[in-house]
Amino acid sequence: MPTSKEYFVEEHAKTNFEDLTFESMDGTLLHARLYQRSTRTPKLGTVVFFHGNAENLTSHAIIVDWMREYGLNVLIFDYRGYGQSKGSPSSKGCHLDGLAALLKARSIHEKLGGRHFIVYGQSLGGIILLRAFIDSSIRKDIDLLVVDSSFASYKDIAFRRANDNLFTALFSPLAYALVSDKMSIKKSLNEIDVPLLVIHSKEDKVIPIDFGKEIYDLAQTRKWFWELETGPHISVFTVKQGSNRKRFISFIQNNL
User: Whole-structure pTM over 0.90, yes or no?
Assistant: First the structure.
């Protein structure tokens, strides 16, 4: 759940970043942090990171702030109601926040320079990212979409999670009646027209890997699927972090 607590205070104190604010599409004030690339690295580009459902950007930044050491500027932001961002969380509001974040990140990318503009969505952030991409006016400027440990339908994931234990399984059909799929991207995945990298672990118990495979299968674009043999939910850069981090940078350098 969203919180305003600051996490990993000591770790963040050792890393240079800039706190930013920008307006969502409806004027709600959002908080973000920009981790600029190390000056000794080449200008590889900019990544904007759409984090998952829990906590706020201070607990998610350590997943991606390492990218600055490889020449990438990293912008991570909080949806409304998370961390220092104003407002209250809602699916429609997060969609507006995602649209605004894409615009803000493109502006930063144009200012700081670099070869590639990359948009990365993890867990809940993956579906928010994809919905924002489909509706964005700047989709042509994006060089790569990365969808990590995510899903395409709110109804489908609610139904699956309800079946996780015997008691809630009795009520799982209600997921399709009670959960809105207005912001789902399942029927829009064939509209993706930029390169797509889908990442998912076979050991993910939060969002099973078949949800990631569905996104990959339905997208009709240049695409890749990284099936991780080990690791829990959203662990691509924390389990076997050295090899997967280098693999990701090499992927950008050699495929875009």
Answer: yes
8 Å CB contact between 40 and 120: no
Q: Which of 171-190 are b and which e, b meaning 16 or more Cβ less than 10 Å from the residue's Cβ? A: eeeebeeebebebbbbebbe
pLDDT for position 174: 38
Confidence at residue 164, expressed as pLDDT on a 0 to 100 scale: 61
| pLDDT of res. 176 | 41
Domains of the chain in start order, with CATH, are 9-255 (3.40.50.1820)
Residue 172 pLDDT: 35
Residues 6 or more apart whose CB falls under 8 angstroms from that of 43 comprise: 37, 71, 112, 113, 114, 115
With residue 215 as reference, give the H or E element that holds it: helix 209-218
Pair 134, 186: CB distance under 8 Å: no
- 75 contacts 110 by C-beta, under 8 angstroms: no
Handedness of CA 180, 182, 184, 187 (dihedral sign): positive
Separation of first and last alpha carbons in the chain? 35
User: Rounded to an integer, what distance in angstroms lies between the CA atom of residue 174 and that of residue 162?
Assistant: 9
pLDDT number for residue 57? 97
Query: Cβ–Cβ contacts within 10 Å for residue 2, how many?
Result: 16
pLDDT confidence of 166, banded at 50, 70, 90?
very low
